[in-house]
Amino acid sequence: MSKKTLYIILGSIIIIALLVGVYFLTRDTIPTIEREIPTSDGSQPFGSEINPSDTSGRDDPFEPITDDGPLPLLRQITNEPVAGATTITTAAGDTVRYIERATGHVFDGNLSDILVKRISNTTIAGIHDAIWTTDGTRVVARFLSDDTIQTFTGALIDADIDLASEEFTTTSGNEKELQGSFLPNNITSITSSLDGSKIFYILSSASGAFGVIANPNGSSKKTIFTSPLSEWQVNWDTDNFITLTSNPTNGVSGIAYTLDTRNSKLTRILTDIRGVTSSMSTDGKRILYSESNRSNELSLKVRLRSDGSILSTGLQTLPEKCVWSELQSEIVYCAAPSILDPGTYPDSWYLGLVSFDDVIWRIDTTNGSTDIISDLERQAGEKIDATNLFFNESESHIFFLNKKDSSLWSLELVS
User: Fold this and answer.
1) pTM, whole model, 2 decimals?
2) DSSP-assigned beta bridge partners for residue 191
3) Measured between alpha carbons, how far apart are the two ends of the chain, in Å?
4) Cis link prior to 342 (omega < 30° from 0)?
5) What span, in angstroms and rounded, lies between the C-alpha atoms of 411 and 310?
6) Partner of 159 at 20 to 30 A CA spacing, among 109, 315, 351, 374?
7) What is the largest CA-CA distance in the chain?
8) Do strands 177-182 and 138-145 pair parallel, antiparallel, or not at all (unpaired)?
9) Using the 8-state DSSP alphabet, how is residue 167 labeled?
């Protein structure tokens, strides 16, 4: 996503946040988030209902569920806009942790029931996006302040521990505080390592851009990448390698590299592909990428790094709407529209000029076979443009944000 586009999106969020702030300032009481809390421990319903249907047997994975019975395969965890989410394993089992865009409050939801619980009410208004470390203890959030992209890195800690002098609103009760510090201004792209021990971000410079690797709290900074191009998409796809893709736009040929974090070595993996975006498989052997042709159509392909062979998936979508399996490195799951509306891709989708109505596919990149996993509209009863896909550790569930409203969803995979 270009810096200009990010400014437009972040500006809209700040305007909305200011309007909400004006509303609260005109009230006689301290502003709070009003939520239904039906239980004594502060829990609330785990998302809204899926459309009614008979749940007996759950034989049809596309059939929406509404009766009291088994949990639905596809469910909305929250209808509040979410900036970023991850999954962690606790004593209670698999848990999804997320941070709200409007407030910066953090919530946990257990996959075995329909409840979520707020664990921090530290307030950071108007977050655009956020990434979590794998253990769910630290989040890096970006937001716009006075036309400047600010990036806050914070840790969830007990209220009686002070980790930093800079902090936002404090919490109360048994909830944790989000404390930390700011990274440099105007970070255009950021990613974290698979084990959560490092972050990597891109900053613009007078001569182009440079990339910095650091600890999640911003310490131990080291520049390991420089480029005359000012804008890059970054993904830390494998243990030691970061994928850098030139910022995509329709009609312009792009390139992609891998960056070895151990020695700063760059290796070109894609070149001269129109509107290219990319994602590397978790074993580093395959590159998923999309290109836009002269008819403004999208094509999703896989390139095998060992011999350069290319496999067409037959899907019209973007790698940003896909997630590679770690348990089966040749398998990738993608959200793709049933019908691709006319547009200038990928720009029209990035800018929100078009929105997809998706189906979830499973792709075997060894032979090109594809299988429908979920018809999201049929199963949810509403149109979903899925993005930011990720698994829990056992890969029993796929999680994603609906780009239409940034709501968070989970899809249980059926063997």
Assistant:
1) 0.81
2) 200
3) 35
4) no
5) 30
6) 109
7) 68
8) unpaired
9) B
